[in-house]
Amino acid sequence: MNDLEKYFKENNKRLIHKLTHYFDIYERHFSRFRNKEITVLEIGVSQGGSLQMWKYYFGDKAKIYGIDINPKCKDLEEESIKIFIGSQSDRDFLREIKKTIPKIDILIDDGGHTMKQQIVTYEELFDHVKDSGVYLCEDLHTSYYLTHGGGHKRRGTFIEYSKNFIDYLNAYYSEQRSLKVNSFTQNVDSIHYYDSIIVIEKQMHDKPQVLKTGVQSFEDITPRKGLIYRAIKKSWIIRRFNKILRLFRIGSFIIK
pTM for the complete prediction? Predict the structure, then answer.
């Protein structure tokens, strides 16, 4: 049992509402930030218990911020915890937040969980997360709830929206104009999907290079048949045919 889960189970302060498997995920991605001068923003204050949990976990050097639409949450402020009242789907409000608080080390979206709220929050605040920071959006199961605008493979859900991140991460290898290198490609190190959670870890990097080291063990001898196969495969006719198939997102033509 890690420190976060222990705190949660022994909690006798303000109410905390979490799925039990979240604590291992938090520990895996947040532990490197403990006892450092960091900025944490949690969207969705609720009863204020999780803000107190982050304050305990990250230590006295951390500055904790919260956002909630309920004005009563303002009364939950305490030392090292500041709370802003507003809607996470209000782009102007979020832009003002960026002017008010420093760059964020850890952003936790535990707000209203509707598709618009999650998408707008990502679009407005992701660039305010530090180059070495973490963006975590939880309770993604609402992407399958009708009450929140969800549904399996339904257009406009945050799950479907976030699937584009996988393409962005690999855009350096794209041969098509429809997928170009963008700031996500250049600034994201990894994407982690868990049950109901996505974690995006940022780290600036250039296009990966392919290098070789060491001594070759034996001569690479390709059979004559293989040479013919490779020649056909690389011929302009096959390439053109596959390019047309790719345009319509149809499986490629392969010579066996």
Answer: 0.87
Q: What pLDDT score was predicted for residue 29?
A: 98
Q: What is the DSSP string of 89-121?
A: T-HHHHHHHHHHSPPEEEEEE-S---HHHHHHH
Q: Report residue 233's pLDDT band, with 50, 70 and 90 as the boundaries.
A: low
Q: Where are the domains of the chain?
A: 3-202, 222-256
pLDDT, mean over the chain: 91
* CB neighbourhood size of 248 (10 A): 6
Looking up tokens 């963006």 gives: 135
Does domain 3-202 sit in CATH 3.40.718.10? no
Whether 21 shows a pLDDT value over 60: the answer reads yes
Q: How far apart are CA 200 and CA 113, in angstroms?
A: 17
Residue 151, classed as helix, strand or coil, is: coil
Compute the distance between CA of residue 176 and CA of residue 180 in angstroms, rounded to an integer.
8
C-alpha distances out from residue 100 to 84, 104, 208, 232, Å? 10, 11, 36, 61
Does the pLDDT of residue 150 top 70, yes or no?
yes
Count CB neighbours of 214 within 10 A: 5
Token pair of 231 as six digits: 């020649």
d(CA 104, CA 40) in angstroms, rounded, equals 6
User: Which burial class, exposed, middle or buried, applies to 182 when counting CB atoms under 10 A from its CB (0-12, 13-18, 19+)?
Assistant: exposed
Torsion of CA 225, 228, 229, 235, to 10 degrees: 180
Is the separation of the CB atoms in 198 and 192 below 8 Å?
yes
Q: What is the mean pLDDT of residues 65-78?
A: 98
